[in-house]
Specification:
two-stranded antiparallel ribbon; 201 residues; 7 strands
Length: 201
């Protein structure tokens, strides 16, 4: 029986539309491609989530790849939290599940600046019982350590937990710990996933 629910944030409870955000800067096409490649698609982006490197160190490394765009990189990075917005359904979904008696936890990859500037204000967090955000623990999904921390910190029995995440690797990592998991591909998939485990909303 499922007694505990765990949710990722990005593409599950909130949208991360970095492409739309970047398009809003109306950069020349070649500059846009460089910013896309060296910032949003760079391996350094995951290091933002890990929280080991400072924002300044991340920017130093990004700017080194295209020094002529240093100021552009810095402006876009400073405002990037605006690319994240909670889905309209998220607060109501978690509220309804909370009212059914389910403890709800967050397990998500986010960097300190982005989380504190925007995500920490999202309405759905009011209906959660705790969270593990990657920058706080210096590990990112799908690394095993972050799942261990979640289970230990909140004394969660994995056999009684259901996890929702959009990335297959993160879902599989959860299952390796015995956690039931659903890959999210929109709101309907969350509803279906809950129903498969006997939870109606």
């Amino acid at each position: 029986m499922i007694r505990t629910l765990i949710f990722d944030i990005g593409n599950v409870l909130a949208d991360f539309d970095w492409k739309g955000y970047l398009a809003g800067w109306k950069l020349p096409e070649e500059e846009r491609r460089v910013v896309e490649r060296e910032l949003f698609l760079s391996p350094l982006w995951k290091e933002i989530d890990r929280g080991v490197l400072s924002d300044e160190e991340i920017l130093r490394r990004v700017c080194a790849a295209a020094p002529e765009l240093s100021e552009t990189f810095r402006k876009i990075y400073r405002g990037a939290a605006a690319a994240v917005s909670q889905y309209d359904y998220a607060p109501g979904l978690l509220k309804a599940l909370r009212e059914k008696g389910f403890p709800i936890y967050i397990l998500s990859n986010y960097g300190k600046t982005f989380y504190e500037d925007r995500l920490s204000q999202f309405d759905f967090l009011a209906y959660t019982d705790g969270q593990v955000i990657s920058y706080e623990v210096r590990h990112i999904k799908p690394e095993p350590e972050i799942y261990k921390i979640l289970l230990s910190r909140f004394s969660i029995d994995p056999k009684e937990a259901l996890f929702f995440d959009d990335l297959p690797a993160n879902v599989e990592a959860a299952r390796a710990f015995g956690i039931h998991a659903v890959q999210v591909k929109g709101y309907a998939s969350i509803v279906r996933g809950l129903k498969e485990y006997g939870i109606e909303i």
